[in-house]
Specification:
The complex is a heterodimer of chains A (about 260) and B (about 160). Chain A is mainly beta. Chain A contains 1 helix and 17 strands. Chain A is about 10% helix and about 45% strand. The radius of gyration of chain A is 29 Å and the shape is elongated. Chain B is an alpha/beta fold. Chain B has 6 helices and 7 strands; from the N terminus they run H-E-H-E-H-E-E-H-E-H-E-H-E. In chain B, strands 1-6-5-2-4 form a 5-stranded parallel β-sheet, with helices on both faces. Chain B starts with a helix and ends in a 5-residue tail after the last strand. The model of chain B has no long low-confidence stretch (mean pLDDT about 85). The chains are: A mainly beta (about 260), B alpha/beta (about 160). The interface between A and B is large, with 65 and 59 residues.
């Protein structure tokens, strides 16, 4: 009985101490917060040569592989516990499956990607947890930066007209950036409210796509698709937009036709 | 029996202490911190979206389709950079949704994923003129906000 009473008193003192500590800490700040952590300088965990790796891929590539070499420069065994990819298109492997690294050991994290119809600069980050990392704090974030050549460029993605304003024709320049010419074969508009006309400036290299709204009395949107003869699937169909709408406070002034 | 009584007493005291703390301090604050002073130019705090903009924005979900189908902001538009998706379909649907000029707020899983910024860049590249922001804290901020945030759906038919 005495032991029970003693235990209860000790527990009560501990609980009271915790309560007082919470009181003294003050209110939890919700409107503010701590600034983001500075860029991590690795003194623990694995040491990566680079945590962001840029890779230029061929124009017709369908897959890309990015390697992240690392070394365990600490004095303890480190184990890779989990990898979160943020993309179903990626596969991440670690040195043939070896996950634990003794001090001084080296390895490679290899990320492989299906490229699909992606183009331009695409960043694919993924996170690595070491054994013992909290769930919300991975030790490492690695980023694959894929540079996929843009073979055809539109100098404007969307043509805009103001509701009730002039409905003058406007153009989108289409320019080939590839060593081989890419011909635009056909142009279609999803809406009869916008007339489209393709004018070659230099066949296979430079075209002008002229768009004219039927009227600007009503809001409207057209999806304009351009079919090319490119043998690379991601450049077979290009897309632009034509829109008639009223300006709002949240919209910058429409681009002048 | 004595041991059992002791354990019961200890547990009861611990619960009592916790209960008193809860009554005095209230529920713990699990919101994702968002200091406006630390925001990048294209970022926004959830509090601003809800309080200043009354949630009247186009929500764009930059996570995977599976995550979006599992749970997402009600009425959100899926737009990610998964190669299995049709990027042109995202653009077309996005253009339709942005006709009304609403601000666009893009979110991904959390503050570390980075995909939301890439999607935001692609939306801006469409040159529709709508203001485009990235939500600090991502889906984690929305989840934690619960009823204080925008309505969310789970497991329902996606748009």
């Amino acid at each position: 009985m005495k032991a029970l009473v003693r235990s209860l008193i000790v527990l009560a003192l501990i609980a009271a101490a915790g309560f007082v500590a919470v009181q003294m800490r003050g209110p939890v700040v919700t409107g503010g917060g701590s600034p983001p952590p500075p860029e991590r300088i690795e003194t623990t965990g694995l040491s990566f040569v680079k945590t962001t790796e840029e890779v230029a891929v061929a124009a017709d590539a369908t897959r890309a592989t990015v390697d992240f070499p690392f070394e365990n420069k600490t004095d303890k065994i480190l184990t890779i516990a989990k990898v979160e990819k943020n993309c179903s298109c990626a596969e991440v492997q670690v040195s043939g499956g070896k996950l634990s690294y003794a001090p001084g050991e080296q390895g490679v994290v290899r990320a492989s990607y299906e490229l699909g119809n992606l183009s331009g600069r695409v960043e694919k980050p993924f996170m690595l947890w070491l054994a013992g990392d909290p769930d919300d704090a991975p030790s490492h974030t690695l980023t694959s930066c894929l540079i996929i050549p843009v073979l055809v460029e539109l100098d404007c993605k969307t043509l805009q007209w103001t509701l009730g304003g002039p409905g003058e024709p406007a153009k989108i320049g289409i320019r080939g950036r590839h060593s081989e010419p890419i011909r635009v074969l056909a142009v279609t508009s999803s809406s009869d409210d916008f007339k489209v006309e393709l004018k070659p400036v230099e066949e296979g290299r430079h075209y002008e796509l002229w768009v004219t709204p039927a009227n600007t009395a009503n809001p409207g949107l057209a999806c304009i698709r351009m079919e090319t003869d490119s043998v690379i699937p991601r450049w077979k169909v290009l897309q632009a937009f034509a829109i008639v709408r009223a300006p709002t406070a949240n919209i910058q002034a429409p681009s002048a036709p | 029996m004595n041991t059992l009584m002791r354990m019961t007493g200890i547990v009861a005291l611990a619960l009592a202490g916790a209960g008193v703390t809860y009554l005095v301090r209230g529920a713990p604050d699990r919101s994702v911190p968002c200091d406006p002073a630390t925001l990048k130019p294209d970022e926004v705090c959830l509090a601003r979206v809800i309080e200043e903009w009354q949630g009247d924005v186009l929500w764009v979900d930059a996570r995977s389709r599976a995550e979006w189908q599992r749970a997402a902001v009600d009425g959100s538009l899926l737009w990610n950079i998964d190669q299995q998706e049709d990027m042109q379909a995202f653009e077309a649907e996005g253009a339709m949704q942005m006709m009304d000029g609403r601000r666009v707020v893009v979110y991904c899983s959390n503050e570390n994923c980075g995909v939301s910024r890439q999607v935001a860049d692609r939306i801006r590249a469409m040159q529709l003129g709508n203001e485009v922001f990235v939500l600090r804290g991502g889906w984690r901020a929305l989840e934690v906000a619960g009823t204080k945030g925008p309505p969310t759906r789970s497991g329902a038919e996606p748009r």
